[in-house]
Amino acid sequence: MTQNEAHEFEAQTRWPDQYEVSQKRLGKLSAAQQLELFLAGEKITAELAQAYRNGEGLEDEIVQEIVGRHYLWIDAFWTPSQAAYIGLGQMYVSDERFAQNYEKQAAGLALFMSQAMAVWAKNNLS
Q1: Can you give 20-45 as a three-state secondary structure string?
Q2: Which domains can be identified in the chain, with CATH numbers?
Q3: Which H helix or E strand runs over 58?
């Protein structure tokens, strides 16, 4: 089993409803559209890392705007509630696989992103 297959199996097992929604949404996209979607996610992460390196605060307008786009990007896969979006941010810190991905961009980014996501969710989701 490849690493990608292992991640898919884990997602299908841990979050079967969200996994099904995600697969349906992705299945409606062409290969080019899927690539564009994944590249958009990478761009959002790079922008958030730059804001973090620039010393922007969790509640600063630029950070919250980027996190808002992150939420919309996640929404392309599944629509998280306030609690689920906050939980996703917490997983970015607690799951080493996610944390490593964000820490490659900037040391401390995983925690910053998690905290910024919580601020955004509390201000924008009920």
Answers
A1: HHHHHHHHCCCHHHHHHHHHHHHHHH
A2: 30-124 (1.10.490.50)
A3: none
- What's at 13, amino acid-wise? T
Per residue in 72-109, is it b (16+ CB within 10 Å) or e — as a string? ebbebbbebeeebbbbbbbebbeeeebbeebbebbeeb
Give the integer Cα–Cα distance in Å for 35 and 13: 25
Q: Are 83 and 125 in contact (CB under 8 A)?
A: no
pLDDT tens per residue across span 89-118: 999 999 998 899 999 999 999 999 999 999
pTM of the model: 0.89
Check if the beta carbon of residue 48 is closer than 8 Å to that of residue 113.
yes
